[in-house]
User: What shape does this take?
Amino acid sequence: MRGDPGLDAAWAAVAARIGLVGAERVLLKRLGGRGGALAATFVFFGVGALGMTPFALGAGPVQPGYLLFALPSAAVYTVAFLCYVSALREGEVSVIGPLGTTNAIFVVLLAAALYGEGLTLSKAAGTVLIVAGAAALQAGPRIGGGLRRRFADRPARRMLAYALLLALTRMLDKAGAGQAPALVYAWTVFMAIAGLLAFELARRGRLREVAECVAGAPLVALGAGLCNGGSFLLLILALARLPVSLAEPLTALSLLVTAALARLWLGEPIRARWLPTLAVVAGSWLLLGGGGM
Assistant: This one.
């Protein structure tokens, strides 16, 4: 509805999230190289949780029912992002990163099944474009071997596992978005994830890896964590007013930000990858119904 301040704010949240997620991937790639995947993931969420803490504590009392969604979401997020960080550490961010956008496919299917969000011809065409673009990115010039390489390459498999798990959390987050203030919900999820990761690090006797991860690049750790916290908070704000099958696929536009930053900061070659990256973006747009079909 045009002129609806709440809807306008939701769209603004989506737009801001696109930029943060684009930067987040590159920062996390650099952060993950400083220590183990477990420690890097803890820093990624722990810094975000700390950044939200003073604001969340000042939000006032809330009904505890939102925990039925926030805590399971946190548990699945923990596994998902361990796959995510590990994939980014071992693969090139401008190649592996786009595979994560296949979560839009799972989101659309789950949203149709759980929330009755319709499946259209444009969404089907978008799914084909996303899969084709991701395969081309993984295969490079030898596109015929893309499917085989996608499942033979460990970072790619982990990113695809992340995509499926992330789609499951989006269903939980959509259900929980209206159960508590967005800041409280996001803070709870991040604190629970940080707690789970801290427990696992302590159990393995690897807490020292956290300090090693941060010490080498404290500004990268700070930037990655704040981008992560901010992008998730913006997602919860968007989900309160927008369908999940609309808000989530738009995040694929962040690939353009990631590709540009990967070239500037990491020196990754991206010239030959713009076309398949744009195919993933175009597919995400069609998933939104942008083709009018």
Summary: The two ends are 21 Å apart (CA to CA). Residues 5-117+148-244 form one domain. The chain has one domain: 5-117+148-244.
